[in-house]
Amino acid sequence: MCVRQKKRKQGRAHFKKIKSMGKACGKRKGDKNMGEFVKLDPDGLKALREINPMMMSYNVEFAEVTGGTFWKAYTPEQVAGTEEFYVEPTTEGIAAMYKDLMQIYAPIDLYNEKLRNLAKELGPVWVRVSGTWATKTYYDFDGKMNGQVPEGYLNVLTKEQWIGVLDFVKEIGAKLIVSVANCPGLHTAEEPWNPSEAEKLFSLSKEYGVPIDAAEFANEPNMMEETGFPKGYTPAHYRRDQDLFFKWLRENYPECLCVGPSTTGGDNIKFGKGDSEDAGVGGIEQLAAETCNCSDLLDGTTEPLDVFSYHYYNGVSERLASVMPNAHWSAEEANSEAYLETALNFAHTYVPLRDKYVPGGEMWVTESGDAGGGGDTWASTYLDVFRTLNELGGFATVTNGVIFHNTLASSDYGFLAREVFDPRPNYFAVLLWNRLMGTTVFDTKEEIREGAHVFAHSRKDGKDGVVYLVINNSFTETTTVELPKDAVRYTLAGENGNMRATVMTLNGRPLVLGEGNALPSLEGAEQAAGEVELAPGTCTFFVM
């Protein structure tokens, strides 16, 4: 057992001990109600840090912009949990399964009024236009290819499509981050990367008045050839080319942030579940022929990063469960402590790497979601809200940075339903987060435990006071909260008590669009001081 694995095992044991202690001190002796008890103390809170006001951001996949293959949609029955999603295992690898897992989509309409209005309501955000497809996309801004894909590329981006992205970013008041092409169509492994394609993207954006604010060199580069790099590409080639890109960027577009390395897996990351030393570790190795660690991509580079980035998913979806069983969590585990602590475990793993490679910098999760492979069957339901809000709350207690949810409006993990853009429960959850939770993060002194995930921030409206988020992830026990003063309450739940509901309620009112796609009322309810019972499977904001 290596030192890092030993420390991780010790850390898990310590965490379990803390949780056990927390449960003991979170219940009042002699209470008939065996649920958790939380006493809020807004006057005794200690500030931990100030966080990025755009911490909650999202991705628009390159595959959405150009159109093409992306994850096949689940059926309504699979979303409801009444029909099993099953993929027949194959000895030919994941690539042989793609025909059953993918479907072709038309390019997203970024001029759609409904999409723009809903995106704008989330407030100022970063929009990341990237994904694996970005590494292999040709920018046909002069129209010479006439829709034909040049050799060595996978997709073609037109000038009109990119202007659509720029108009969208400008309309909603966002900042733009991209990753650039680095594939066999651009150069061979032995030939250094060149900026001919990147210059098209950056110069058009600048000339149009919507400059690119941040950039990564390719997407998930630690998967090497599987990412789309030239044949025979190695970490040494990547280090060479990343330095070339960031040097070129600083010389020509000095206001643009250099972000990286945008890795997924590697670095002894525990991907998925399991208590044995090798259960779920890495995980990505089953999808890629070769992977490497952050150190392989960054040690010896000469161009420093401005921001450290990585990708995080709790596991893999049902689509990939047959080839990666230890990396998949069932719906019955979606509220469990083991599942919910995954995001925080990732953050704690990457903080030392951030400190090593970008000391004093922010840490960005440039892709995040419940499951790789397009999301689980329940990603579009209320059941995933526990993970989403817990991830935001936990990340803010650890570091400052940005979490890019994957995605805004594609696949089953999108905030909005593909093509029709109806808001899913996660959309309203993060909308409330962005409206209520301010940038000052406080130490609640409450240990995370089943039934009581408690986070506290300043008020987003700038008024004196505190906003608490209390997540009761127990599906059987009521959590009792003692309020020392009057508050405004916002309780989220699945419609009709259904955890896999596609409609979420706020204080009992269904959150659905009204006439003309108007947002429903998101007003809270007055809550008097004293003891308040939070029903099982609910998430509640208290503003006081």
**For the record, what CATH class of the largest domain applies?**
Alpha Beta
Low-confidence stretches: 1-25, 276-286
Gap between N and C termini: 49 Å
Major sheet: 9 strands, antiparallel
Domain module tally: 2
Query: How many DSSP-defined strands?
Result: 24
Structural class: alpha/beta
Shape: globular
In quaternary terms, these chains amount to single chain
CATH architecture of the largest domain: Alpha-Beta Barrel
Number of helices in the DSSP assignment: 13
Helicity range of the residues? 25-40%
Provide the gyration radius in Å.
23 Å
Please report which band the strand proportion falls in: under 5%, 5-15%, 15-25%, 25-35%, 35-45% or over 45%: 15-25%
For the residues shown, what is the average pLDDT?
89
The H-level CATH homologous superfamily of the largest domain, spelled out, is: Glycosidases
Task: Look up the CATH topology of the largest domain.
Answer: TIM Barrel
